[in-house]
């Protein structure tokens, strides 16, 4: 749930220097880094509202006063565009990478580990609202493990909650975004392994500007995110940026 105070104004001029950005949970740490660099360059402050992409989409549909939506996929931004809630079509700003991560000593985070008897709890973000959870389900289906492992799956509301499950060892290991490895609070914690990218569809992460937001300011942030500096930050936090404007 979010709580924001909105001050009504009949002016058309954008007087506030703050931007409110709805941010997918997997992007939380990366957005903090982008937020700091953008404020340093422009003096504009950014307020972040962080949740799963599906939950943020529901909040936007309910009239939440966000300027920009930074999603973990393209599906949710495209649905908002189709319904006339955005200024223009969403654009891909990066591609996400899925990993298996564990904080348990002696446990190897690999696909084969998922089926072992001593692996009893596997963390995964809710595939109904979190694109990384949906991608994880595709991985399980690819390896014909979905039905076999159903009883082991522990669903978090978002990637952030799944990360908490993994970090606190409420689960043995879990599927998450590679970007978690770059969090200053989690650096060098546990062990991880990359998942074959052929086992899940490309995670095309989309950004879209919202009609009820501050369009001029929102466009400036969009240009920053897709600039060389913004793309370098994304790359440094585990995202893929090559072939950015080409479908895979």
SSE class: alpha/beta
Note the beta-strand portion.
Answer: 15-25%
For the CA atoms, what is the radius of gyration?
Answer: 18 Å
**What's the CATH H-level homologous superfamily of the largest domain?**
Periplasmic binding protein-like II
Helix proportion range:
25-40%
Strand order of the largest sheet: 2-1-3-10-4
Order of helices and strands: EHEHEHEEEHHEHEEEHH
The profile of the biggest β sheet is: 5 strands, mixed
Tally of domains? 2
Indicate the CATH topology of the largest domain: D-Maltodextrin-Binding Protein, domain 2
Average pLDDT rating: 89
**Could you say what the CATH architecture of the largest domain is?**
3-Layer(aba) Sandwich
- Secondary structure tally: strands: 10
Our measurement of the CA-to-CA distance between the termini, rounded to an integer number of angstroms, reads: 35 Å
User: Looking at the structure, what is the overall shape?
Assistant: globular
Number of helices: 8
Q: What is the CATH C-level name of the largest domain?
A: Alpha Beta
Q: Uncertain runs with pLDDT below 50, 5 residues or more? A: 1-15, 244-248
